[in-house]
UniProtKB/TrEMBL annotation, chains A, B, C:
It comes from Sinobaca qinghaiensis. It comes from the Bacteria. Keywords: Cell membrane, Membrane, Transmembrane, Transmembrane helix. The keyword Oxidoreductase does not apply. InterPro entries: Gly_transporter. Pfam families: Gly_transporter. It is found in: Cell membrane. PANTHER family: INNER MEMBRANE PROTEIN (PTHR30506), UPF0126 INNER MEMBRANE PROTEIN YADS-RELATED (PTHR30506:SF3). This is Putative membrane protein YeiH.
Amino acid sequence: MISWELLNIIGTIAFALSGVIVAMEERYDIIGVYILGFVTAFGGGAVRNLLIGVPVSALWDQELLFTIAFLLMTGAFFLPQVWFRHWTRWGVLFDAVGLAAFAVQGAIFAAQMDLPLSAAIAAAALTGAGGGIIRDLLAGRRPLVLSRDIYVAWTVPAGLLIGSGLVDQFFGYVLILGGIVSLRMLSVYYNWQLPRRQLPSS
Amino acid sequence: MISWELLNIIGTIAFALSGVIVAMEERYDIIGVYILGFVTAFGGGAVRNLLIGVPVSALWDQELLFTIAFLLMTGAFFLPQVWFRHWTRWGVLFDAVGLAAFAVQGAIFAAQMDLPLSAAIAAAALTGAGGGIIRDLLAGRRPLVLSRDIYVAWTVPAGLLIGSGLVDQFFGYVLILGGIVSLRMLSVYYNWQLPRRQLPSS
Amino acid sequence: MISWELLNIIGTIAFALSGVIVAMEERYDIIGVYILGFVTAFGGGAVRNLLIGVPVSALWDQELLFTIAFLLMTGAFFLPQVWFRHWTRWGVLFDAVGLAAFAVQGAIFAAQMDLPLSAAIAAAALTGAGGGIIRDLLAGRRPLVLSRDIYVAWTVPAGLLIGSGLVDQFFGYVLILGGIVSLRMLSVYYNWQLPRRQLPSS
């Protein structure tokens, strides 16, 4: 289970930092920064536990992770201004890493439970996107999940490859994680879009 | 349990299509259409399972329903333009059918568990409205639940009639379902309103 | 467990009334008033049960509380206009009482479960703020949790004092409850602020 734990830590830290950046963009006070960071970081895991059937109380067993997230968020709040010159890209990057780590983790779990392929795809998407959805709703933003550039579609390969059993080893998980992060960042950079269709709003 | 299953299928399909229509109104891409459709369709059931105490993992046992919803949503996305001439009314209709099917289902469950009448009313309202609330929150819209014309009030008769044991047969369930859909559509058409009271906003 | 029950009743009633006031400010109809009241009142408890691991179905055992909340909300809807002269402050007060009661309750639970101190702090904050977050999301408002004046920070002392075992008696709980309500109301009145930091929005 080392890969499960590792993915959990990576996803949690990345989403915590993405929450901090959104909170500072919205000019929240220091408590607002902690709240948005914690909710983004652990909300993803809570959604995963709810959807997958892990008791939600397992949430409270992660004291080490709470402490790491708290220290990181405090550091980010007091970071010198110069570090934030490229903060927009950092926020998008942290969100991409969180998305990828939790997507792979959700797919691994579904595969281990012998759930059908469609469930693995859904688990990857929902586990990956859960924390970010809560963050955006609380911040009063349009959820990134439904953003203009390609976001949640990149979790589908994770669901397919892991859910079908094609990839079932640590090295493969890392490759998928790196692939998702890269594709997500390229989507933002080049503003890749999927086909869309418009109905006039009522 | 045939009526329970049937109501689940009807509610899921109706909410899936209502999600697709909202997504196209908001000009989401094809993945956004699938996401909003799935979340609306299965979010209602997830809320129901959470509130009623069914394990949420039961969510993943519905592979047939996943496949049906996926094919329907794909079809709707590629439907020729002419079919959408009256799309606004279709969107409202699908939402009404989902509301009615899940409201009846929530009330049946509460009655089978010998929960008190107030719980049957609440279960009908919450199960019926859950999927639509999630859809509207994700789409950044004011939830239909709190809309100007009468919406969730029509679930109260379902809770009363089924929760009190007056209606406990398949034929009665169908009558209530038809009644809710009709009353909801008439509310929209004639813009029926309940009394309201205003306090100046702070 | 008398203090647990009492805190539950106080929190539920206070949040119900705060939901009613928000609903009337937004000019919702009478069903909207009931919905927002119930969701605010019992949403806090549902979030608590979810996070803490109490079965959510325990929600339906509170028939007496449902009835009390229903009667109170009906009364508030028909209250003569003159009573609402100071409604803004009443809405803030009810929300503060709900926040305090549920924060103390969440911290007591975490302490009884021998959860670590960080979990007690988180439980106090999340249990206290849960109902209000749902209310604000449904009403399309920026959550009070992230408001300009100090809100959720006042739950931290409850988590610290109760989670560390320093306070473990009814009288102490009441003192903390009174302290949180007073500090919250003073924050609003004097517009107390915590330090904040701004990044330009992307």
